[in-house]
Amino acid sequence: MTFSLLGRLHMPALGMVLAFLAVDWTGSYAIGGVIGATVTGGQAVAGPLRGRAADRSSAPKLLLLTGFGSGLGMTAMVGLTGWLDPAHWWLILPLAVLTGLSHPPVTQLGRAIWPRLTSGPAREAAFSVEATLQELLFVVAPMLAAFAVAFWGPVAAMLCCASWAVLGPALFAAALWRAGLREAPPPEAGGARESGSLFRMPGFASLLAFFGLLVGGLISVDLVLVGWARERGTPELAGLLAMVWAVGSLVGGLVAGGFNGRPRLLRRAALSALGLLALVPVLPPIADPGSPWLVGAILLVGGSAVAPTLAASNGRLADLAPADRRSEAFGWMASATTLGAALAAPLAGWMLDLSGPAAAATAAAVLAAMSVGFVAHHMVQASRTPREKTQSAVT
Q1: Is residue 39 a contact partner of residue 137, using CB atoms and an 8 Å limit?
Q2: Closest CA to 109 of 336, 329, 339, 340
Q3: CA-to-CA distance for 235 and 244, rounded, in angstroms?
Q4: pLDDT at 77
Q5: Taking the model in full, what pTM does it have?
Q6: How far is the C-alpha of 232 from the C-alpha of 214, rounded, in Å?
Q7: Which of 10, 34, 47, 165 could hold 335 in an S-S bridge, CB 3.0 to 4.6 Å?
Q8: What whole-number distance in Å separates Cα of residue 41 and Cα of residue 39?
Q9: Nearest to 345 by CA among 9, 18, 32
């Protein structure tokens, strides 16, 4: 778990650093959102392919190869922004796609291994602990990124992300190798490997839509904080507020981890959406210039639902997928979340350029509210479909 989290250390920082880099280069939040969306679009395409490869081959080798490609792509993007005229910013998009396609599958591998190591309540606890500890990344990484941008500039911060994109997955690969998790997982119950599309499983598509919309809303908040902090002339404030938000999520995850019984995903998702909606009236132009203390308080309270929601949804996906297809299922989840971010980032950037942080926060809240509808639809489908029928649908 430790090295799985370390392997993702640069990921929460990348969106913020890339936003600062692109905006300083072009002067436009919308263009910055398009560049970020292109990177995450490449990640969305690669997610299930990397997961399927991990289900059928050596995960450590896959991590080493993709980590090197990802770090190389980020370094090349930095070089291109220093050489290319901002008027021709669109020439960076093919490189952004390649960088996204090389994204190492640390997250889906890190989540797919828990059902291989434990089961029952212990597995649910592992998902809860993993989701909670991941919030430490959202405490540390954005804070480090914002201060790196403030003191050394976005170029140096981006190069730090590129370096860790190589080193972090390598550390996780070494941990998997030492733990004996070198080969692909065996088929469930010793039978033949499952075939067919995972989308034939009832509830799978609606669960992916939930992931994409929810994470799209959450990712939009990062851009809202970057825009607001930059307009105030205090870029380090974005990292501090992101840290407060993550601390709230961390506390919520620790509290929820002690609850007994099956987690109520629908209720947790609704609380996450309400936390985003509460930001709208305290940001400019509705509240001008806006109070960092009030925004921080709302982020602290509203963030307490984030980690519990993610933990419950990860456990639900693990229940739904066959044992020898879990990395692929979590790869589809990663694709759904990155696709949601890819769609949400330019929307939030456009709303920032057009009407300010409050409008962008409204867009984030709408996406989260839509996700609640999809998770309700998923739960209706899941309640009508026994696991045996789900498995036969995949076969």
Answers
A1: no
A2: 329
A3: 15
A4: 92
A5: 0.74
A6: 28
A7: 47
A8: 5
A9: 32
